[in-house]
Amino acid sequence: MVDIDNRMAPGSAVYKTLLESTKAIPWKIDWDSKQFAYIGPQIEALLGWAPSSWESVGDWASRMHPADREWVVDFCVAQSQAGVDHEADYRALTRDGRYVWIRDVVHVVRNPDGTVDSLVGFMFDISERKRTEQQLISLQKEMEELSFRDGLTGVANRRRFDAIIELEWSNARRNRQPLSMLMMDIDYFKQYNDRYGHLEGDACLKHVARILNSAATRARDLLARFGGEEFVLVLPETDEAAAGKLAERCRSLILAEQIPHEPSPIGPMLTISIGAGTLISGHDDELRPFIDAVDKRLYQAKQQGRNRIVAG
Ligand SMILES: Nc1nc2c(ncn2[C@@H]2O[C@H](COP(=O)(O)OP(=O)(O)OP(=O)(O)O)[C@@H](O)[C@H]2O)c(=O)[nH]1
Question: What ipTM did this prediction achieve?
Answer without folding.
Answer: 0.89
